[in-house]
Each structure stands twice: as structure tokens, then as C-alpha cells.
Amino acid sequence: MVKSCCISCCTKNKRNSPSLSFYLVPSRVTEPGRREIWLRRIDRRNAQGRLFEPNSDYNYICSHHFVKGKKSNDIEDVDYAPSLFLNGDQENCSNQILERHLRAQQRNARNKPTSCASQPDIFQADTPTTTSTTSAFQAHTPSQPDTTFDFQPDTPNYTSQPDTPTFDFQPDTPNYTSQPDTPNSSAFQPAGTSPSSSPEPDRSTSSPDLEIQITSTQTTPGTSAFQAHTPSQPDTSSSNFQLDTPNYTSQPDTPNSSAFQPAGTSPSSSPEPDRSTSSPDLEIQTTSTQTTPIASGFKTPLGSTEREDIYTEMDNLRRERDCALDRIAALEDILLKSQLSSQNVENDNTKCKLLTGLAWDVFIQVFLFLCTFYTNKSTNKHSIPLREQFFLTLVKLRHGVSFDLLAAAKCIKKSTAVDYFWKWLELLHAKIGFLIKFQDRENIFRIIPPVFRSSFPRLTAIVDCFEIFIDSPKNFMARAQCWSNYKNHCTVKFFISCSPVGHINFISKAYGGRASDVQIVRESNYLSCRYHVPGDQILADRGFTLQEEFATACGVSFLTPAFTKGKKQLSAEEIETSRQISSVRIHIERIIGLLKNRFSILKGTLPIQTVQHITDEVNDRELASIDRIVQVCCCLVNLGESIVLKD
After folding, report:
1. What confidence tens digit (pLDDT) does each residue in 467-490 have?
2. Nearest CA-CA partner of 290 in 212, 225, 213, 211
3. What CA–CA distance (Å, rounded) separates 101 from 506?
4. CB-side exposure of 518: number of CA atoms within 13 Å?
5. d(CA 527, CA 550)
6. Three-state DSSP class for 234?
7. In angstroms, rounded to a whole number, what is the distance separating the alpha carbons of residues 137 and 140?
8. What pairing do the DSSP bridges indicate for beta strands 459-469 and 248-250?
9. CB within 8 Å of 537: residues ≥ 6 apart
10. How far apart are CA 258 and CA 195, in angstroms?
11. What is the pTM of this model?
12. What are the phi and psi torsion angles at 23 (to 5°)?
């Protein structure tokens, strides 16, 4: 395999750059520390933001990413790890990195500490800078020679020496020079003064109680004031002065030394404190008085303008957060409304009728009714809620969309959508099929429209047939039985009956398009006496030539428009009777149109799998799939409002 560089955006490999050298990433076993440095320099991260950890032991980095063009095993060398990861001027970048590395080595060499014999001083006095620094020290030597104070304020840095109360501090500009321990030296002595000029304090009467109070009044960064005194001795003398650039010299504890002494003054100018009344406790108290408070996390005090800016920025961030949350809520609402879900049509009859063909109240009542008979209520993590399954089934009936579209809208598999549809269709057919039945004669005559009652006072039903297009079967006999000369297509035919108010009270099984209307009526058992009583009136089209059979079977008056067969012209009575029959019989055409328009699955060309499902043949069911679909659609139409208006 060709060696390739594992650094992002680097396309170097042994094939296109044979002059380069390729080095393995250090092993996690032999060189774990160097491996970690290399990986941090590479700085490749995965999708979770974690550092890149090679799975293979054969990850290479080309010499293009080393300053000198090859790696070095010297830990002090710049090429101990790759350092060039830019795509620009590689040569200039290498020179700059090398120069910076050499300058760093020179600084480290100059800053290395020397031995104590050659440089005994702890502090070395340098030329002070021009920064404005004001300091005031006033201290007394405690009676405990071995007491050591070591604390670090913001700017000073004090270094404790053995057996002496010394302070090690490093302010911004001053530099202190330490002298070796001598019998006559002060703890802190300014540069340029003689240690012998300081009078020796009387240690026989010194008290162990020493309180050092350091007061810092800071109006500008870098300005400090220190004051130390012994509160138990009210007449104790002190030295209080302010220098712009003080320089102090630290001395170990000797019998003749003072705790603090500023530079440029004589040790003899400071009177010896009285230690006989000193308290045995040692207390260090630091009091800081600032014109503006220093906020947590800030090294410098915040001014009023800066604080106002921070508050303004916080208010802006809060407003941006609120706007972002409102925007997210609006987008979530838009996303929810754009989904094909029952939540979008909740309490909205217009949308619910548009998507399901039912009003919202009817939809929810039917769903709750069916849920009482739903046995398999256990759902897995990939299933959708039961109401969404029922909603999906009605959408399929209402619009006749493909299962692929429904599956994509619900983010489920096509087979799952098909299973949901047939499962809920079976439940609908079994539990709401009772809605298709003949009403009692008293109810029919009570609610019959007056316009019908005047012409046909005992009208109970209006009948007709309708056809639905289907795909051509592969079997030639089935294709011949389904061919309709009237529609010039393969169809299935149904016989339908409705009451005078538009209620569907009978629907036959599916027949091939070749079957005649008379044959379907005879074989559908519509002539039975359980549907009719003597004296009923039934309106039909002139193609139903069954007047004698209805009169003989159940004593029903079967009315159809008059024929002109064998006549040159109809009589005036026949014309008027035909006109009245046609004006009322037209309502069955409206019912058929309503059935197909409300449930568009009946308008399109149905596939053979929908007409006769393979499970129907396996289980030897009495009704085919198309029969259950049409009967369920008729039941759902009966749940809607009547299209026959009342005067």
C-alpha cells in the first residue's frame, strides 16, 4: 500500500512525492509521551470532538511538516514533533519557526540560575522602570527570631529566609538584592545604604506579639501602600515614606536589623521600638480599599463604563436568546402543521373533512368506538400511534394515494402502511357494517321530503348500479367477465339502494362489468321480503325491467320511466309520470357521485391486488377486498350529512 500522510488537507504520498520521507506516528507502547505530542500537533478530531486516535499502527506523517525536513529524536530539537501545518509559504514558515526556537533556547540559557557561591544574593537590584509605584512600609522586628512570613499579594512577592521574618515579593518594577547572613545587617535594607547605620534593637524586652497591617489604596493599577506597626506599643516609632521606584535589599535576621527599611535612608534614622510590651500573638491584616470593585475573573478593576457595557451585552444576549426560542417554537409549529397527522385537523371540521371525509367529532367518536374492539394494542418502537393508523386508513380511502406516499409521510415502511390499512379496514367493516340497513317504514314516512310525498307517498328506496375501473386481469376468462361495453374498460359493478333522504340502505357484492343490472338484482337477493313490504314504491332506471318480479315476490310497486319501444310517441300521461320519476330518481345518481367524490379510491383504476387480495383466496373469504372497501365507504357516507334538502 502506498504511504500517505495522515494530516488533514495534506495530499502527499510516496507516489506523488517520492522525494519526501514518511515517518510513523510514535507507538503507544514504546513512546506514549511523544505519541501524545504528535497527535496534539496533528489536531484531528472525530464527529464527537475527541482527539484523533489512530486504530492502525501504520499512520505516516511526511517530512513536509518538519522544519528541517526530517524528524529528530532530541527532545530539545524543534523537529522532535511535526510543527508545520500551513498550506502557504512553507519555506518562510519553517525559517520563522526555527528562529523562534533558537531564540527560546538562548533565553533559557540566559535565565538558568547560577550557584549560590557565585551569586549569594536572593534579589538583584536593577534599574527601576518609569512606572508609577508608591509604597510605604512601617514594620517592627518580632521577638521570635525563627518566625517566617510568606504571603503573596497581587503585585509583591516575598521570599522567606530561615530564622528571619522576611518578605519575598516581586513588584512590577523594583528588584531586591539579598545579602548573606552577617551579624550586623537588617532584614530589608535599601540598596546604597550601610547596614551598620541601623541601631540594634533591644531584644531583651521585645514582646512576641507583632501585628503587621498592610493597607493598599489602589487608584491606578500598580500603586500600593504598605504599613506595619505594633498596636500594643502606642509610642512605637515608624518610618512612613513614598517612593516612585523603591529598591529594597533583603538581609537575614541579625541582632542589629530592622524589619523593613526603605532605600535612600540611614538605618540610624529609625528609632528602636520598645519590645517589652509587645503581645504574644502575631497577626497579619491586609486591608484593601479600591475605588471600583474587581469582578471575579478579572485581574483589573472594572470601571462604570465597562460594567455598563457588560450589562448591555447581557441584555442583548437575553433578547437574542428569547428571539431564538420564539423562532424555534414557530418553526416547530410550522413543522407540526406541515405533517400529515391527525393533530393538524384536531377540532377543525374543514380540514378533517378534506383529509378523511368525516367531521372531527365523527372521526374521534368512530376511533374511540373501534379502540374498544382493538385487541393488539402492544406497539413497538417503530410503530405509530393507533389514531395515526386510523387517520392513515381514512386518508387512503379519501384520496386514493399510493402506499409509498403514505409510508414516506409517516416515515415507515411500505409494507407497514399496507398492514395498517387492511387491519383497520377489516375492523371498520366488521364493526360499522350495521349502518347499511333498511329503516323502519314509520321513520321513512315521517322524514320523507314533502316533494317526494306528494308524488310518491309510499316511496322507500331508489336503486341503480355503478361501476369502478380496475386493471385488466391476466386471466382471459376473468378479463372477459370484467369487460364493460358501456364503459369500454374492465370494471366491477355494484347495485346500490338508498332511502328518500339519501341514506344508503343496500349495497351488493362486486360483479364483473359484463353482468347486467337485472342479473345483479336477482343474484343479490334484493327481491327478498325481508327488505320490502307490500305497497312499497321503488324507483329505478328504465334498464331495470323487473316490475313483474317485484310485484310477484313481495308486492312492491317497481316504477321506471316509460319506454318508446313499439310506440311512435309517448302519451301525455306517460311523459308526466316519467318526468316525476326521473326528478326523484336522480338523487341516487347524486349519492353515487357523492360516494365516489368523497372517497376517491373508487374513482381511480384499482389494481388487481385491491380487488381480490391473495389472502382472500387463501382464507376462502366470502367477500373480496373490493367488497369491503365499498361497503366501508358507504358506511362512512351514512355518517355524514344528507344531500337531500328538506323544505
Report:
1. 999 999 998 998 999 999 989 999
2. 225
3. 98
4. 10
5. 6
6. coil
7. 10
8. unpaired
9. 456, 457, 458, 459, 460, 556, 557, 559
10. 10
11. 0.52
12. -115, 135
